[in-house]
Design goal:
By secondary structure, this protein is of the alpha+beta class. Helices cover 28% and strands 30% of the residues. Bound molecules: zinc ion.
Length: 54
Amino acid sequence: MQRSSARHATDSVLATLAGDDCDWCSSGTLVRGRFKGDDAVVCEDCETPAVRVW
Ligand SMILES: [Zn+2]
């Protein structure tokens, strides 16, 4: 297992999702943030998490 590589891949996923339009509302944009203490991408408008990393 290469944990550093997996971590980098996760970070890439978050970076890719950030800036996309929200799937759950019409006007929100996804931004990097935290959801329940974990790295995530959340909508800045409705605060729905698009990705949560466990
Ligand atoms: Zn939204």
